[in-house]
Structures are given as C-alpha cells and as structure tokens.
Design goal:
heterodimer, A: 354 residues, mainly alpha, globular, B: mainly alpha, MetI-like fold, two-stranded parallel sheet, 3% strand
C-alpha cells in the first residue's frame, strides 16, 4: 500500500506540470494581452482607435511601459519566438515558485493591499471554507437518511415522491434558486426581510465575542448554504439509494436475515455501512469545488470568496492569480482522486493496488 | 436446424422451440424496456417537440410571411429567407424520424448475421445529410429581409404571417412595446391589464422583443450546446477509452495521465479563458463554449469505456473474433465498442443537462452574447418585477434539464434495473 501511495504521489508531478504548463500556454500564447481582455470585459468590442486610447490609459495606470504586456511588440515577434518566450516564462514561473514567489497580481497593482496571489487566496479562503464545509456536512446529513428511506421503501410512495423531488431539485438552475431566495427572503419579496443579503459577517464582526460571531456567521451563511446544498444533496441521495439498494439485495444481507437478525440491525449495521463508502468517496471528489465551484452563489450573495477571485482573474487574464489557482485546484483534485482510491482500499480488503 | 448445415446464430427461440421473428438486438431490447416507462417517454416526446419547435421557429414567430400575394403575383417568401442551417436541421429531423423505416429496410433476414442494422441505417442517413448540406451550402444564398413585409402588410392581397407576426430583432420603433406582460392576461383581469389578445402570449422583453420568439431561438442554442458538445466529448471519450482499455500497458498509463490533466484543470476557468482569448471573428463565443465543453468533457466517458473494455476484452466473443483474425480496428469498432456503449448513453443524457446548466452560468457571468435562455434568465433576474421574463426562461431551462435527467434515468433503468440511481 505504501509503495502504491508513493507511486501515485510521484505520478502526480508530471500531471501537475502538464496542468500548469497547459494553462500557462493557453493564457500566454493566445492573441491579445490582459489589457485587451480588461477592455473587452468592461466595454465589449470597441473600435480600434478607442481601444488603443483605452489600452494606453490602462497601461499607464498599471505602470506598464512596454507596448505589450508580455514585453514585446506583437508586430515584430514571430510565432516561434512567442513559443520560446512562453516556455521561458513558464520555466521562470516554476523557478520563482520553488522559492516561494508566486508572482504579482496585475489586477491588484493599483490597490493598497497585497499583490501576492497567496495572500489574495488566503484572505478569501475562510469564506469559501466555511460555506462549503457547512454545505458538505449538511448534504451528507440529509442525503444519508433520505437515501436510506428511499431504498428501504423502494417502489413505495416515499421512494417515488423523493425520486421526483430530488430530480427536480437537481434540474433547478442555481442562478434562479439563488435569485429567488435572495429576493423573497432577504430583500422583502414576501414581507420577510430577515436574512442579510450581502457578505458573510455583519457590521462590527471583529469586535464580537466568539459565540456571537459564530451565530452571526451562521445567520449570514443560511441562504448561500441553502443554495449550495440542494443540488449536491439530490445527487448524493440518489447515489446513496442506489448503493443501499444494491447492498440490500446482496447475499450477505440475505444471510444476515436468514440467521434471524432483527431488520434494524441488518439495515443499519450491515447494509448501510457498506453503502456509505461510495457516498464518502463522492464527497471527497467534491472537495476541489471549494475553490471555484461556488462562484455563482458568491456573486449572487456578494460574498468575497475564492471562486469569485479565480473566475475574475480568468476573465481578466491575470496570469499570476490564474496560475496559483490552477496549481492549488489541480493539487486538490489529484489528492482527492488518490484519497478516494485509498479510502476504497482501506474500507474494502478485497481491493488491492499492488 | 433441420439439415445441420444452417445454424441460426442470432435468432431468439421461444420456449416452444419456434423462432421468434427477426433477431433481437441489444438496442431493441433496451428500447422495448424504455417504452414501458411513461416518464421517460414523456421526456423524450418533450425533447423531440422542443427540437421541432426550435427548427420551425420562423414559422411560429417572425416577420417573414409564409405566403404573399401582391398585384396578382403569389410568392412564398419564408422559403427564400430560411438559412441553409435551418434547412439542414429540418432535413436532419426528417431523417431522424425516418430512421426506424430505414432500419427495417436494411435489417438482414433471420438466416444471416450482418452488421447492426442500426449502424448501417445511421451511416446511410449521415451520408444523405452530408450530401444535402454540401449542396445547400455550395449552391444556395438565402435572402435577407428586415421587417420589409410587416410594414407593407396592407398593400398585399393575401399575407399569411407566422402565428406571432412580430420582428425577431425589434428596432427603436418597437420600444413602446417593451416590458409588456403576457397579452392574454387582459381577458383574465381586464381592470389591471390592457385588452386581451394573442399578440404576445408570453409578454415582451427589455427591448420590446417577443419573449416566445426569444424562447424558441434560445432553444436552438440550448439544443446545439447539448448535442454538439456531448457528441464531441462522446466521440473522443469512446475512442480513447477503447484504445486505453484494449491495449493497456504504457498506452493506458499515458492516456490516463492526459485524462487526469484534463480532469484537474477547472473547466469553468478554462472556458472563460478560452472565450476571452479567442477573437469573435474566428469563432463565435457560443461555439467556443461548445468546443471547449466537448474537448474537456470526455474524461467521464473515457473512464467508463476503459473500464468496460477491461471487462469486454476477456469475453468469449472477443477471443473468437481474434482467433478468426479480425484486425484490431475492426475488432474495436464492430465488437468491443457497441457492447460497452450502454452505460455511456446514460452519461451522455446527464452531460447534455450539465451543458445547458453551464450555459446558464456563463450567461450569468456575462460571457455569452448569443440569444439564449441563460441570457434571458440573467436579464430577468435583475428586474424581478417583470416576472414573465424570468418565469418563462427559468421554466424553459428547468423543464428541459428535468426532461433530460428523467430520460437518462429511464435509459439507466432500461439497461440495468439494478443500477438505479
């Protein structure tokens, strides 16, 4: 097992290089530069004269002296040189990263705060982690009993009803659900304006006591978490139902029943334990979503999370921030794949990897 | 088996020993199971009707008349104005509807075992479609018409307009009609709405555009995204998965790493970068979305197909085919892939639903410039008081995704009742 894990960890290195190199190459080799992307994001397609004027203004503001953000006049550089430059740039990024320097966010050049991508992500990390962890725990706590009931009473009313409801929840676009929750429960659509509609903390959160801060955060997180939960809940509950159903028909359950064990013990002790495993691995696979998956919710509820930062950077071709996000996301994704495999082997002695 | 020389290989035999008609293929068994599930059939009918409505959109709502008689001269303007793409879509729909007939025609007799009739019929129809598309795009130039007929409707002796005679892209003259609630509400509540009519059954939008027409054209985007993107990812995933699973070894190792790379690059980020970097004059943004979705979405199919092939590789019929000297390419395409395709079909229907959702997210982020449901929902979301804007687009998205998910469930049940998720 230890050799297997070591081998997988070693195989992660070329994969990570592939991920970052591919992302770097796409961002670097594509026509245009971040300045152009910024103009297009703000004003759409403008005519060339306006574009040049606007581009000059932005370059001056950002303190970029070169004609092109990448440091060369695009008219005087040929494709081969561009590729060489990109490889050189990638090498430089890796070298600097190995020394703990992740580059500098272009977007934040004009602001007061830190420009280091690491700081930018860490600043927003606690928001994303709080939201997504509450959501994951809730998903698990609701999905297990729902899946259990549906499987035990399969073909009966509860099963049919829950199947339709879960499918319906799964088909509901997050944009619509979030907007409706926000306008009905937070902005006074039906006379309820109880819930806060922006941010994750109320005013003066820094001076609050520990308990007060906790309650305040939960209160602010209610609607966003609701919005994050329902889709994953539907998926996981359906998965749980399927896997429990399969286990309930397995031979060992028949044996357990035949030797006279009470039904409760058969279901909870034997079948449920075995069907929790695929649910847990699915939850593990959902982990990388922490980083970019909640961008819709973050935008609707105006929460400064990592998803918003990552997506915003992608829109403006903010290279350093994109690269850092890709690295973290890629590592998380690969680690969760590995963790899922290890969990399987650990829980099921029949699976051996060496 | 009377004379000992003819052997009926694929003929199913009833318990009485009588041959039961033509050979039952795997596809026909699954279809027979699927037909027993009302929810799946209703979903399928909904999707087919939606596709039909999207294809026939110019006949349902628009500004070009179907028939126009002026000065004793009759003409059919709409057929001159339909684009080549619309004609190709119509032919494709027709060919799809005729597929069962072709399958029956090419089905081999009970005595012989040929290529799957389904595959042969598909190949014939694809060839016909390709010829039609080539001829249309090579020889025909559609006419363009901008509200010309609507303005002169009085001058014609006869003018058959579409059900909703209203410009698809209204100009400034239409602005007074903006943000009107569904026009039939006047009949239900005359005191609070203008007099009832069928002029705008679903109301009008932010620039005086008819919501129903926008829904119909948005359906085109939704169906395109779903089918083309999933088609591309299926093709890549099935091919690579079959290669990886069949050969194993270092080929598998390398392909698996490639799949891991693609899986570990956040998809949304990749699509956003691609949209912002690929100039609109190369590929319209919506096709960038479709391409990136297709090129990045194959990993799930790949893993499924690879696992299926590990199983199929050792089956007796594969050994038999190999012993007969069947070449590897033919072995994969004719024997291995068709037998591993079933679970992939399920993934494909869920993939289409996911693609529709992704378009909504991109529209929410302001990255889609094509008329689409996501864009309508995003417009409507900012002005909830115009409820007909978000209710219509929201329910269009919900119903379509729901139909795809129900259909996917139905297919999964039909394939393997044990694997119900």
């Amino acid at each position: 097992m230890r050799t297997y894990i070591l081998k997988r960890l070693l195989l992660m290195v070329p994969t990570l290089v592939g991920i970052t190199l591919l992302t770097y190459a796409i961002v670097r080799l594509a026509p245009g530069d971040p300045v152009g992307a910024m103009i297009r994001m703000q004003a759409g397609n403008v005519n060339p004269r306006v574009f040049e004027r606007e581009a000059d203004r932005i370059r001056q503001r950002l303190g970029l002296k070169d004609y092109n953000f990448w440091g060369a006049d695009p008219d005087r550089i040929d494709a081969a040189e561009k590729i060489v430059n990109a490889f050189y740039g990638y090498g430089r990024w890796v070298w600097h990263m190995a020394q703990g320097d992740f580059g500098e966010s272009m977007q934040q050049r004009t602001t007061e705060g830190s420009k280091d991508p690491l700081d930018l992500y860490v600043e927003r990390a606690h928001v994303s982690v709080i939201l997504n962890l509450i959501a994951e725990v809730l998903i698990f706590l609701i999905a297990v009993p729902v899946g259990l009931m549906a499987a035990r009473y399969s073909g009966r009313l509860f099963d049919r009803g829950s199947t339709i409801v879960l499918l319906g929840l799964w088909s509901l676009p997050q944009v619509l659900a979030g907007t409706l929750l926000l306008s009905l429960l937070a902005r006074g659509g039906i006379g309820l304006e109880g819930f806060p509609y922006a941010g994750l903390h109320g005013a003066g959160a820094e001076t609050m006591g520990w308990g007060e801060w906790f309650v305040d955060t939960l209160w602010h997180a209610t609607l966003p978490v609701l919005c994050l939960v329902y889709g994953g809940l539907a998926y996981l509950a359906k998965l749980g139902r399927a896997s429990l159903l399969e286990n309930l028909r397995a031979d060992y359950v028949r044996t357990a029943r035949a030797k006279g064990l009470p039904e409760r013990r058969v279901v909870y002790h034997h079948a449920l334990r075995n069907s929790l495993l695929p649910m847990i691995t699915t939850m593990v696979m959902m982990l990388p979503m922490l980083l970019g998956g909640s961008v819709v919710v973050e935008r609707i509820f105006t929460i400064p999370g990592m998803g918003n930062l990552f997506v915003g950077a992608a829109m403006q071709r903010d290279l350093a921030v994109i690269m850092f996000g890709t690295l973290v996301y890629g590592t998380l994704a690969l680690l969760s794949l590995l963790l899922a495999d290890i969990l399987y082997a650990w829980a099921d002695p029949r699976i051996r990897y060496d | 088996m009377t004379d000992g020389r003819t052997t009926r290989v694929a003929t199913s035999v009833t318990p009485g020993g009588e041959p039961a008609g033509p050979p039952r293929t795997y596809g026909s068994i699954v279809w027979g199971q699927l037909k027993k599930r009302p929810s799946a059939m209703v979903s399928l009918a909904f999707i087919v009707l939606l596709a039909l409505a999207a294809i026939l959109a110019p006949f349902i709502g628009g500004e070009v008349p179907i028939r126009w008689v002026e000065g004793g001269e009759a003409s059919w303007p709409i057929f001159r104005c339909l684009t080549n793409g619309e004609y190709v879509a119509m032919v494709a729909f027709l060919l799809g509807a005729l597929l069962p007939i072709t399958i029956r025609l090419v089905r081999p007799g009970a005595e012989q075992v040929g290529a799957s009739p389904m595959l042969r019929a598909l190949a014939i129809h694809a060839a016909v479609l390709a010829v039609v598309a080539g001829l249309l795009f090579g020889m025909r130039e559609p006419e363009r018409s901008y509200g010309f007929y609507l303005e002169r409707a009085d001058e014609a002796e006869t003018a058959w307009f579409p059900l909703i005679a209203y410009p698809r892209n209204p100009g400034f003259s239409e602005l007074p009609f903006k943000e009107q609630p569904p026009s039939w509400l006047g009949w239900l509540a005359p005191e609070s709405y203008p007099p009832g009519s069928w002029a705008h059954p679903l109301g009008t939008g932010r620039i005086g555009d008819d919501v129903l027409i926008r829904i119909l054209y948005g359906a085109r985007t939704a169906l395109n995204i779903g089918f083309v993107a999933v088609g591309i990812s299926l093709a890549i995933g099935v091919l690579l998965g079959a290669i990886s699973g069949n050969f194993g070894g270092w080929v598998d190792l390398v392909l698996m790493r490639v799949a891991e790379i693609v899986m570990s690059i956040p998809r949304l980020i990749l699509i956003i970068i691609m949209i912002t970097v690929i100039p609109e004059r190369w590929i319209p943004p919506i096709w960038t979305v479709v391409l990136v979705l297709g090129v990045t979405g194959w990993t799930g199919t790949y893993r499924l197909m690879r696992a299926e092939l590990f199983r199929i590789r050792g089956e007796d019929y594969m050994t038999a085919a190999r012993a007969l000297g069947v070449r590897t390419g033919r072995l994969l395409i004719r024997h291995a892939i068709p037998n591993g395709l079933a679970p992939i079909l399920v993934g494909a229907t869920f993939g289409i639903a996911g693609a529709v959702f992704l378009e909504v997210t991109l529209a929410f982020l302001g990255l889609v410039q094509t008329p689409s449901w996501g864009m309508m929902l995003n417009d409507g979301r900012q002005h909830l008081e115009y409820w007909w804007l978000w209710v219509t687009s929201g329910s269009a998205i919900f119903l379509t995704v729901f139909a795809y998910n129900l259909l996917g469930e139905g297919i999964r049940d039909a394939i393997d009742p044990r694997l119900r998720i």
